């Protein structure tokens, strides 16, 4: 059997101040959602790399390499400090080079990515690959 609520328990006063605060909270939430365009999903470099690879008409192999590089970029401090789109564009550039495919000229610029950010991400990704290739395989 359910216990009846005690009559001496404190209740929240439902006065004008309560409703003003509630309206202020709802207004703040609405402003935040409008700023975000009601899009609460954050684009990741992995998803963007696959999108860029598709836009660049990469081979399946190059797209897989780009996705793997974008995933590995999460472990690199330099890449974590760069915009996700820059890391994704660099991953596609490196993947196309690894797959001996021509890289599209300034593809990332169409997505509003600065060349210096793409260059920094490319340098970090290549350095990570070189480190990984220099290490002996784990047994």
Q: Helix and strand layout, with pairings?
A:
Elements: H1 16-35, H2 45-55, H3 60-72, H4 77-80, H5 84-98, H6 115-134
Q: Spans with pLDDT under 50 lasting ≥5 residues?
A: none
Kindly provide the name of the CATH class of the domain at 45-134: Mainly Alpha
Helix content: 55-70%
Distance between the termini: 61 Å
The secondary-structure element order is HHHHHH
Look at the structure and give the mean pLDDT: 84
Q: If you consult CATH, what is the topology of the domain at 45-134?
A: Cyclin A, domain 1
Query: How many helices in DSSP terms?
Result: 6
Describe this structure in words.
This protein has 139 residues and is mostly helical. It has a domain at 45-134: Cyclin A, domain 1, CATH 1.10.472.10. Helix content is 60%, strand content 0%. The protein contains six helices and no strands. α2 (45-55) runs antiparallel to α3. The chain is elongated and about 75 Å long. The model has no long low-confidence stretch (mean pLDDT 84).
Overview in brief:
This protein has 139 residues and is mostly helical. It is 60% helix and 0% strand. It is built from six helices and no strands.
């Amino acid at each position: 059997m359910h216990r009846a609520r005690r009559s001496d328990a404190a209740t929240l006063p439902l006065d004008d101040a309560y409703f003003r605060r509630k309206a202020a909270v709802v207004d703040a939430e609405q402003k935040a959602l409008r700023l975000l365009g009601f899009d609460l999903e954050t684009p990741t470099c992995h998803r963007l790399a696959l999108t860029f690879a598709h836009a660049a008409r990469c081979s399946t192999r190059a797209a897989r390499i780009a996705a793997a590089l974008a995933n590995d970029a999460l472990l690199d401090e330099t890449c974590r400090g760069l915009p996700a789109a820059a890391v994704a564009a660099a991953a596609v550039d490196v993947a196309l080079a690894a797959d001996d495919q021509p890289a599209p000229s300034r593809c990332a610029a169409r997505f509003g990515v600065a060349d210096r950010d793409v260059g920094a991400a490319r340098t970090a990704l290549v350095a990570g690959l070189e480190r990984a290739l220099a290490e002996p395989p784990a047994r």
